[in-house]
Amino acid sequence: xxxxxxxxxxxxxxxxxxxxxxxxxxxxxxxxxxxxxxxxxxxxxxxxxxxxxxxxxxxxxxxxxxxxxxxxxxxxxxxxxxxxxxxxxxxxxxxxxxxxxxxxxxxxxxxxxxxxxxxxxxxxxxxxxxxxxxxxxxxxxxxxxxxxxxxxxxxxxxxxxxxxxxxxxxxxxxxxxxxxxxxxxxxxxxxx
Length: 192
Description:
Oligomer: single chain
Structural class: alpha/beta
Number of strands: 5
Helix content: 40-55%
């Protein structure tokens, strides 16, 4: 559908988060449309890495989990747009054009940088987890013990315990099971 638009060129497609990051680093597209729920690295993490690494690519996240807290989190993390997967083709094309011109889009709302900042300030943005906390959360969600997580990540078991404590505190949850359910429900981790 996008290739039918005269002013849009589809330069790559990938099936995983790691491949998406490699394409962004290699080709530096103006816009990347990224599914929140990708294998290996999810869309939120891609948006964070693109921003942290200073790539000019503007990220549009597509999701099945379209609620206000997720919208705010996405834009706070570095995404330029957050759209439901049920977005119409015509509106998706418009979102791409708006994002390419420097705007931000959430649902049907188009904002400039000042409006985005005001919108984020109006709501409570969840403090996003660090990349290492996300690594721990992914493995925790797969049922790994602290010892197994420590071995997989090359860190001490006590460091894993510290990360789990921080995750539970940041997400205001009581236990590992709640953290796993929360991560799956919000599309942060793909089911194994």
